[in-house]
């Protein structure tokens, strides 16, 4: 996984890490908005996930600087 991340640009690293690090599905990741990130509590609010349900997922701490 680390080798794959090393050859990606920052944008793709963030997307890839959200997919495997936060357990997001592709559509969930692509629908994220700035307001969905709670940096203080280290979580992401995922709207309209599988089954049309909303949920919270952990925000990988290594992504916080790249997302901000």
TrEMBL record:
It comes from the Bacteria. InterPro entries: DNA_brk_join_enz, Integrase-like_cat_sf, Integrase_catalytic. SUPFAM superfamilies: DNA breaking-rejoining enzymes. GO terms for biological process: DNA integration; DNA recombination. Coiled coil: none annotated. This is Integrase. PROSITE patterns: TYR_RECOMBINASE. Keywords: DNA recombination.
């Amino acid at each position: 996984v680390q080798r794959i991340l090393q050859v990606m640009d920052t944008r793709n690293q963030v997307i890839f890490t959200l997919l495997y690090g936060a357990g997001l599905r592709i559509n969930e990741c692509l629908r994220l908005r700035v307001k969905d990130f709670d940096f203080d509590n280290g979580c992401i609010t995922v709207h309209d996930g599988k089954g049309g349900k909303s949920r919270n997922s952990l925000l990988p701490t290594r992504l916080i600087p790249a997302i901000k």
